[in-house]
């Protein structure tokens, strides 16, 4: 794998900027909240990107892995475990959940995986809603010692991990197998690729990241008015939206899409309230139908168009001269 | 023992509803290869239409069925034209199924939130002169609404069966679901058949919604849980096996209500999920189809 | 009757056919032969409406077929027997035939047409109630041809009907085809890998290679020509074909 030093430098610079921000400036809380939310969305959308964008398996129950991470991290942390360990614990619990639904369904066609994950999210929501009291709280000592900065860094680290995982995945053997499965499952199978194994691996990695994101959220929010809200299908839909609008199956796409989503949410939610979700839904459908490669795809298309125009102009020039 | 029989009575009625919803779903999946995640939300929409017909003009729920059918048929046509027909241009069927899942998932978002904004999140149900009345039958009490609902569901299923097996339209539908290209080579207008089938499927959803608002209640978000169990019914019946759907629905309904005695009502979805996983692991072709 | 003028056909970005022109006269049997992947089925798909040409035109009795959907083309009187049979395997033999008559006709006409098909292929009458998927390869081919004939076409397109069939079966089916052509004047256009069978049956032939038409002319003359003998019939010294 040849290392592109220029690219690495630019990325390093961006990361350094993000690390430095809270140290150098004292930002308003709501901006910090926004950034943390953005990092969580980046993590979740990269998670879906791995199983949906690169492996082509539509996961409709991302919320289950996220919510599971939230819950487990919350209780581990409450019981005294340091937060970083608790978050990892959250991630691992999501992996276990993924195994439960993934093993039976990934052997069959993608439809069953989609329905199965969707069912998992529904069931988790119902079970959690009935098992726990509606409100889940942290002891007062935790609330008193709340500071936004550690949350920022945890969220940033997890987001960087998510992006790094996708980056290394794309360039690995596993990534190649995943994309082969996405593009033509039958061809991959007859080429000797063990599609079940790779699908499961992709799912487990994806679930781990989603669980980590849940852990970050648990650290971020501390208490929950309605615990079932962390299993809401919104936590599945919005990451999917980010991925598709940004560009499914690309590294940058989910990042762009998450920024788009978070910024738009901020702008719209104030004015429209609930109705902004409807606009997102419509936007999502339009993108899927008419611009399935998202923003990244549009940039590519624009680039192609420019090249085409350039070529036509040179041709014309050449003909005039001749 | 009496409790079990009573639970069975309850299970048969709810099972009929599951079967009816699964029929519409199955029509879309089998013929057009679309997976309609928004089907549950459309069921609820049908329920709301019936509710408002009752609230505003006093039309009895079961008499409102023809109106709901017409309205939902039109909704189906619009849905096909706007959101689903563009998918037919996709190069392969796998992409079509995947994309239809994504689109209809987005549609759930739009529909459920729109219904919440329009009609509030409060639960609605229709209370008529005969709601709450019940008849004794084979040692169990059947609510009148339940019996009416059961009757409507069975009638609708039989009507659909006749449509598919005895009419030209039905033959076209069956031919298309086996080989759409060959069907067009036989002179069948595939797009028009798709359009009408979509209308029928959504109309079926509407009828299910009417039964639900009469026997149970609806909230704007309840569509998904109905959808989920109907998916499992589809899996139980086996792919493409339309005849087995209503029986599979009954089985699911019975299973659910009997196990509710043991684990409690809110866990019905858990039962469905476990059923789903078990069937996929041990009999993925469904309970009614022979392997191969 | 059918005139194809300078069509180019693409599969997405990939060009499959270059500047194809051919004509089929009423009542003729015309054939297009060539090796695998030469593009023969592509032409059939273009005529029947499953594929659209990027440039050029296809004219049938003066009507331009380019933009018409497949089912409209059937209504105009062109019927195709697709490659690989493509039967409705879950439906019975009789139901397959009935579906083939989707062009608007009366019940009586449909009934009579089925009777005629049974005369051509008696085995189908025997198997009328059986599921199409349970038939043998030859019987399936007969059913597919019968289904295509149900719409009472004026031009019948046959795409690789000899594939997977025993020589005896191929002979039998060819005989039936030649009979319908003679007795009813049904125009036949067949595409074949079995060059010998095709050129023996046809009056005129086209030879296609790599998406282009290389030779054309009287079928018997083509059969006797040196190039064809060498390239397709394995007669003569083996040498690489000059591009």
Q: Could you give a short description of this structure?
A:
The complex is a heterotrimer of chains A (322), B (292) and C (243). By secondary structure, chain A is mainly α.
How would you characterize this protein structure?
The complex is a heterotrimer of chains A (about 325), B (about 290) and C (about 240). Chain A has about 325 residues and is an all-alpha fold. Chain A has helices at about 5-25, 30-55, 60-80, 85-105, 110-130, 140-145, 150-170, 175-185, 185-190, 195-220, 235-245, 255-270, 275-290, 295-320. In chain A, α2 runs antiparallel to α10, α3 crosses α10 and α11 packs across α12. Chain A is globular, with a radius of gyration of 21 Å. Chain B has about 290 residues and is mostly helical. Chain B has one domain (about 1-280): ABC transporter involved in vitamin B12 uptake, BtuC (Orthogonal Bundle). Helix content of chain B is about 75%, strand content about 5%. Chain B has helices spanning about 1-30, 40-55, 65-85, 95-120, 145-165, 170-180, 180-185, 190-215, 225-235, 245-265, 270-280, and strands at about 135, 140-145. In chain B, α5 (about 145-165) packs across α6 (about 170-180) and α5 packs antiparallel against α8 (about 190-215). Chain C is of the alpha/beta class and about 240 residues long. Chain C is built from 10 helices and 10 strands. In chain C, α3 (about 95-100) packs parallel to α6 (about 135-150). The longest helix of chain C has 18 residues, at about 165-185. Chain C is globular, with a radius of gyration of 18 Å. The two termini of chain C are about 35 Å apart. The model of chain C is unreliable at about 235-243 (pLDDT under 50). Classes of the chains: A mainly alpha (about 325), B mainly alpha (about 290), C alpha/beta (about 240). The interface of A and B includes residues 114, 244, 274 and 290 of A.
């Amino acid at each position: 794998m040849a290392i592109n030093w220029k690219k690495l430098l630019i990325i390093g610079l961006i990361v350094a900027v993000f690390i430095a921000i809270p140290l150098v400036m004292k930002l308003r809380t709501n901006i910090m909240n926004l950034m943390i939310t953005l990092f969580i969305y980046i993590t979740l959308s990269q998670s879906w990107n791995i199983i949906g964008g690169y492996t082509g398996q539509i996961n409709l129950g991302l919320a289950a892995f996220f919510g599971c991470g939230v819950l487990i991290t919350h209780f581990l942390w409450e019981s005294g475990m340091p937060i970083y360990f608790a978050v990892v614990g959250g991630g691992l619990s999501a992996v276990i959940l993924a195994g439960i639904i993934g093993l039976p369904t990934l052997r069959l066609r993608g439809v069953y995986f989609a329905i199965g994950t969707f069912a998992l999210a529904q069931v988790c929501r119902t079970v959690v809603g009935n098992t726990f009291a509606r409100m889940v709280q942290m002891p007062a000592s935790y609330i008193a010692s709340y500071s936004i900065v550690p949350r920022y860094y945890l969220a940033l680290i997890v987001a960087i991990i998510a992006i790094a995982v996708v980056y290394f995945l794309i360039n690995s053997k596993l990534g190649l197998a995943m994309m082969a499965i996405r593009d033509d499952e039958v061809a991959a199978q007859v080429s000797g690729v063990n599609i079940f194994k790779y699908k499961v691996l992709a799912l487990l990695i994806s679930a781990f990241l989603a669980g980590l994101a849940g852990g970050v959220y648990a650290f971020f929010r501390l208490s929950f008015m309605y615990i079932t809200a962390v299993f809401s299908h919104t936590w599945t839909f919005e990451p999917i939206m980010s991925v598709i609008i940004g560009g499914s199956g690309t590294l940058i796409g989910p990042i762009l899409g998450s920024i788009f989503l978070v910024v738009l949410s901020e702008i719209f939610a104030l004015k429209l309230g609930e109705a902004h979700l409807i606009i997102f839904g419509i936007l999502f459908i339009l993108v899927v139908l008419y611009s399935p490669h998202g923003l990244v795809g549009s940039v590519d298309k624009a680039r192609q168009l420019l090249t085409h125009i350039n070529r036509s102009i040179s041709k014309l020039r050449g003909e005039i001269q001749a | 023992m009496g409790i079990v029989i009573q639970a069975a009575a309850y299970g048969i009625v709810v099972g009929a509803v599951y079967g009816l919803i699964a029929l519409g779903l199955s029509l879309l999946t089998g013929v057009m290869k679309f997976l309609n995640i928004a089907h549950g939300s459309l069921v609820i929409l049908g329920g709301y239409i019936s509710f408002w017909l009752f609230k505003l003009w006093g039309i009895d729920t079961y008499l409102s069925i023809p109106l709901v059918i017409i309205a939902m048929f039109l909704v189906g046509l619009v849905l096909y034209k706007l959101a689903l027909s563009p998918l037919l241009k996709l190069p392969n069927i796998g992409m079509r199924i995947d994309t239809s899942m994504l689109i209809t998932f987005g549609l759930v978002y739009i529909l459920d939130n729109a219904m919440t904004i329009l009609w509030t999140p409060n639960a609605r149900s229709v209370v008529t002169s005969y709601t709450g009345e019940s008849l004794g039958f084979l040692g169990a009490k059947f609510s009148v609404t339940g019996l009416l609902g059961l009757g409507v569901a069975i009638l609708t299923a039989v009507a659909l069966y006749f449509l598919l097996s005895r009419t030209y339209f039905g033959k076209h539908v069956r031919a298309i679901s086996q080989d759409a290209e060959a069907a067009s080579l036989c002179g069948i207008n595939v797009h028009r058949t798709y359009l009408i089938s979509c209308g029928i499927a959504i109309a079926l959803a509407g009828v299910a919604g009417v039964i639900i608002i009469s026997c149970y209640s609806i909230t704007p978000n309840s569509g998904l849980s109905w959808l989920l169990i109907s998916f499992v019914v589809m899996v139980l019946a086996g792919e493409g096996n339309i005849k087995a759907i209503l029986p599979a629905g009954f089985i699911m309904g019975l299973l659910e209500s009997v196990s509710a005695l043991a684990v409690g009502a809110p866990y019905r979805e858990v039962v469905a999920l476990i059923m789903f996983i078990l069937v996929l692991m041990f009999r993925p072709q469904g309970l009614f189809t022979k392997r191969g | 009757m059918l005139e194809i003028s300078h069509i180019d056909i693409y599969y997405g970005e990939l060009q499959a056919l270059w500047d194809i022109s051919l004509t089929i006269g009423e009542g003729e049997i015309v054939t297009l032969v060539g090796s695998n992947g030469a593009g023969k089925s592509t032409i059939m798909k273009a005529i029947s409406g499953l594929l659209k040409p990027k440039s050029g035109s296809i004219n049938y009795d003066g009507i331009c077929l380019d933009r018409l959907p497949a089912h409209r083309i059937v209504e105009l009187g062109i019927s195709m027997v697709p490659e690989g049979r493509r039967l409705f395997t879950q439906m019975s033999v009789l139901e397959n035939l009935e579906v083939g008559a989707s062009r608007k006709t009366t019940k009586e006409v449909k009934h009579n047409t089925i009777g005629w098909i049974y005369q051509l292929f008696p085995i189908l009458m025997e198997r009328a109630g059986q599921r199409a998927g349970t038939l043998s390869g030859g019987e399936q081919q007969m059913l597919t041809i019968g289904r295509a004939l149900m719409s009472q076409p004026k031009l019948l397109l046959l795409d690789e009907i000899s594939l997977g069939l025993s020589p005896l079966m191929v002979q039998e089916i060819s005989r039936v085809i030649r009979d319908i052509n003679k007795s009813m004047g049904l125009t036949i256009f067949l595409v074949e890998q079995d060059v010998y069978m095709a050129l023996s049956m046809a009056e005129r032939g086209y030879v296609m290679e790599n998406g282009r038409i290389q030779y054309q002319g009287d079928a018997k003359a083509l059969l006797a020509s040196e190039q064809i003998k060498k390239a397709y019939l394995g007669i003569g010294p083996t040498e690489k074909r000059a591009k």
